[in-house]
Amino acid sequence: MSHFVYVAERARIDLPATELELELQAEVDKFVLFAFEGGELVKERAQAVRRSLFEDVEFLHGADSEPGRRYRLANDLAARVAVRLSASAGGLHPQHFLRRFYRSGQTDKIRLARAA
Q1: Residue 89's Cα: distance from chain center in Å?
Q2: Cβ 72 vs Cβ 27: under 8 Å
Q3: Which of the four, 39, 49, 68, 85, has the lowest number of CB atoms within 10 Å?
């Protein structure tokens, strides 16, 4: 569902979407869906969600394949975003960052994630 909504939004504003962008956004969306409630991070849940989504994972595609590299990069970048969101808990609301991240293209998504 996340892929469809993202592609539809990018088409609506007449911007392209790459496969890496789709995977990265989907990983961030999953973290937000499971770790947040009512717009707020649930600290007790966030660490377990991060571990489940980004650490205790198995990839179907080999690390040397194009899909394997893409999924691993998306996983690593999304894990960085999750850490950033978790670190800001109790401070500023993460909605501003998440809106900016969602509206960004691949290059800016990578830059935002690596800055985390």
Answers
A1: 17
A2: no
A3: 39
